[in-house]
Write a structure and sequence with these properties.
Elements lengths: L3 E7 L5 H9 L2 E5 L12 H8 L2 E6 L9 H4 L7 E4 L9 H7 L2 E3 L4 H19 L2 H9 L24 E5 L3 H10 L5 E5 L5 H6 L3 E2 L2 H7 L2 E4 L13 H4 L6 E5 L8 H10 L2 E6 L20 E3 L13 H15 L13 H8 L7
Parallel strand pairs: 1-2, 1-3, 3-4, 4-5, 6-7, 6-9, 7-8, 9-10, 10-11, 11-12
Helix pairs in contact: 5-7
Amino acid sequence: MSGQKVFIFAPREEPPELLQKLESAGCDVVIGNPDWQLPNGDYEGEIVDNAREAVAMCGTSIRNTPISRRIMEASQRLRIIAKYTVGVDDIDIQAATDLGIMVCHAPTESNCFGVAESTMMMILAMLKKAMERDADVRAGKWREPHHATTFLAPRADGYEGVTIGLVGLGRIATRVAQLLAPWRVRILAYDPHIPPARFLLANAKQVDYDTLLRESDVVSFHVVLTDETRYMLRAEQIAKMKKGAIVINTARGKVISEADVAAAIESGHLAGAGIDAFEIEPLPMDSPLRKLGTKVLMSPHSASFNYGGELREGIAWAHRSIHTALSGGIPDNVYNTEVIPKWRERFGGVSVLD
């Protein structure tokens, strides 16, 4: 191998023209084994072997064998790890920053807005009891009185409407707020990491987390998985929520405790949940969520999976970022921006492309 090594650790239908562009620039493209993305395996050793001497790495999600410090240390020349996806929780960001490696992600419309639309679907399906009513008709029942649904907007008769609480107010949650605008619901949002103007643009009232939990009829999570957000909804927080509230999680599985949410639904404290991301994927057959019937709407971590969309734009963006970094420049989608000064010292202005 004589060119600059680009390692695709988690391939996902990369267009041939993108691979040819890398090869034309003097890169040797190494494509990883798709089996590494499967659950219930540990392929760190194999990934380390393939990462040796790589100047760039890219791919889709690989949560079962995340990109660890050991993998990154396999190459002293590694400049960039570019994800095709929004999330980067399968990369040790702190290690990348320590090692002077840029991590880039792809918050595209098909990724972010696809998740926002799926969030809306779950909110409406739960409040309008779509699954329960469907099950009634299939069972020969008709207009069951206990399956009256929730009216979202305020009414002239004094009904105040529902309150939607958004935990995190990044691209996805902001889009959810935009989609909710015609419904005229009250929107609360908690995000300690963004300026107040963002709340105004989303027509959301800025509140602390406890207030959001106490006042929301629906609590929807839109945060990345960090030490701060890991299991930020457990029994202690659920106890603060309204009786009959609904939980929506289209973020990351370990943001909520599934066991605690299931217990609260079974006890009647929570009315239900819509979940797209789970603590263990695929969802184990013995998960308590499976026993709750139509009170839980489950999706196989596919909120952004759309016809003609999903990762296509993210793949192209990741490859553009690789070309920029290998040319000595800074891409426009760096996640760990604090690494940039150190990266400039190591690689800035120095191209390794033909």
